Amino acid sequence: MKRYALFGLLLLPAALQAQRPDPIGAQRRSVIGQAAARVAPSVVSVNVIRRQRATPRTVWEQYLIPRGYEQRVEALGTGFIVNAAGLIITNQHVVAGAEQIIVTLRDGREFPARLLGEDGATDIAVVKVDTIGLPVAPIGTSRSLEIGDWVIAIGNPYGYVIGNSEPTVTAGVVSALGRDILPSEGQSGLYVDMIQTDAAINPGNSGGPLVNADGEVVGVNASILTQSGGNVGLGFAIPIERAMRVATDLATAGRVRRGWVGVEVSEPRPTTGGWRNQPGVTVVRIAPGGPGAEAGLRPGDVIDQLGGQVVRNFLRWERALLDLRPGDTLAVSVRRAGGAQTLVIRAADLPSETAARVSLRDVTLITVTPAIRAERRLGTSQGALVVTVGPETARRLGIQPGDVILQINTVVVTNAEQVAQVIGYFGGKGQVRLFFQRGFRVMYADVWAGS
Q: What average pLDDT does this structure show over 213-226?
């Protein structure tokens, strides 16, 4: 009896411990576990296959790799379902140049996907899979976020070396809000008004959701700042309001309706001391007949406020333009020789959206005009701007949207119609040389005019 009594006494503390509430564990599950469980079923892997030209890295490879040799490259990102009929949001840089897109659900099912639209300015793309009854991510708002709030990043970091299809969950806090990131070489999109978090974000997380403690998507994970290539606690997400607005435009029209003001401001070099905190931005160009000109802006004006908010660098100006819609008004306070003045600009449609298009096989062209030059900040005042180009032609010629065709053989191109006429003239007569400009660099490609 004493043994059994002693045994019972030994068990008693454990039994009592089992009945004792565990408030810390319950809180942990409610904040992170339950929030992740609510969104995770809608998170998908976005597997992309694209072709890219092989670049020789050594002297030996210059001899071994044929000129123009292409190789198939696989990439992996993340997306989340926003419509039960198969609409998925991801990053534009995840699917850019994709030859094939495969979406993998959490349960391991795979579906081929097609690209409905992409927007390089915001780094948002929409793909669709042809199935129904998919789990949809609950959409929240980033406007209610505060610094220090719990947030969760869900995605597929380094998914190409992991044999499971379930997404990874990492947690952290909102480190900062309204972050404007100075553009760097090769950066996709204009990252302004971003959510900064220390939740671990690594390659493969791109396009995945940033989730609040209520299990609602508040952002789209887009980039990290790192020197090692891995997470160092500086991750950035696109606010969900912007992502949903862009995704709606892409899904319904295939493009984003974005307001245009016809004003170009100075962009100081990153090495310039104090560029982050300047007394406004200087207007350097005004598109003739554009909204800025009609509002009375002049080159040399210094814009120091937008809608009553202080402008301290050009990124604040770009932030205002990124979310501007045609018909929206923008109150601009300027300083000029005659004193301070407040002007109101009414945004118009982008000139490139309303311009007449010329289609040549799988290439769409528009004529470069002063307004389009100002909109796209082109380095040339004439030529034919490439608006869209099919993957096969892009690979064969090396041209891409944003390039300007300047010359075909010895014929100087002055408008888009001329390109079709010249190609038609040389059709079946052999190879022609196409000169085009990308940024401020002139390049060329040889093409068989009859192909």
A: 88
From 93, 175, 249, 333, the catalytic residue: 93
| pTM for the structure as a whole | 0.81
Active site residue 165: no
Q: What percent of the chain has pLDDT over 90?
A: 46
- Distance between CA atoms of 355 and 353, rounded to whole angstroms? 6
Q: Which of 119, 123, 180, 249 is catalytic?
A: 123
- Assess whether pLDDT exceeds 90 at residue 250: yes
Assigned token pair, 244: 């949903």
Residues with Cβ within 8 Å of 33's Cβ and at least 6 positions away in sequence, in order, are none
Q: Is 93 a catalytic residue?
A: yes
403 annotated active-site: no
Given the residues 45, 188, 206, 333, select the one marked as catalytic.
Answer: 206
85/16: higher pLDDT: 85
DSSP 139: B
End-to-end distance of the chain based on CA atoms, in angstroms? Answer: 98
Cα angle 104, 238, 228; round to 5: 75
Spell out the domains of the chain, with CATH numbers in brackets: 22-55+63-255 (2.40.10.120), 259-269+276-349 (2.30.42.10), 352-448 (2.30.42.10)
If phi > 0 it is left, if psi is from -120 to 50 it is alpha, else beta; for residue 261 that is alpha
